[in-house]
Amino acid sequence: RSLKVVINNFMASPEINSILTAQEKRGLFSTINKIQEASERFLTDLESHLEENLLMPNTCEILQHHAKNNFSVYIDYIRNQPYQDRTFHNLMKEKPQFAEVISRLQEDPGCNRLPLKSFLVLP
């Protein structure tokens, strides 16, 4: 759910897209789309196995498969977090209009009054 909030409320915001350069947007949102794709593949796989057998005796195999084949995007995302934090800090400091838009978007009920930074840390 938190990934959808980042993507729908912040990344897709026309206001943010008009304020940020492509490089700033890349630095701020990093590989969120790849994280969402990996998460969806993992959850879809779990759900399909759950439908086959409620006890899910092959949970370990599913986890192992996804850890081996799909979770490298999480490692890349985590490695990029210091750059992402620096980008966010600089944008908040150097672009007042960005800070205003972020503040307004964070008030959306879908955010549950949580700041953008908390969503960027969750994946």
Describe the structure.
With 123 residues, this protein is mainly alpha-helical. Helices cover 78% and strands 0% of the residues. It has eight helices and no strands. It has helices at 2-11, 14-19, 22-29, 32-52, 59-69, 72-94, 96-106, 116-121. Helix 3 (22-29) packs across helix 6 (72-94).
Brief write-up:
By secondary structure, this protein is mainly alpha-helical. The chain contains eight helices and no strands. The longest helix has 23 residues.
The helix-and-strand class reads: mainly alpha
The separation of the N and C termini measures: 10 Å
Residue fraction in strands: under 5%
Instruction: Please trace the helix and strand order, writing H or E for each element.
Output: HHHHHHHH
Radius of gyration: 17 Å
Principal-axes geometry comes out as elongated
Bin the helical content. Answer: over 70%
Q: Low-confidence segments, ≥5 residues, pLDDT <50?
A: none
Query: Kindly state the mean pLDDT as a whole number?
Result: 90
Strands, total number: 0
Give the count of helical stretches: 8
Largest sheet: none
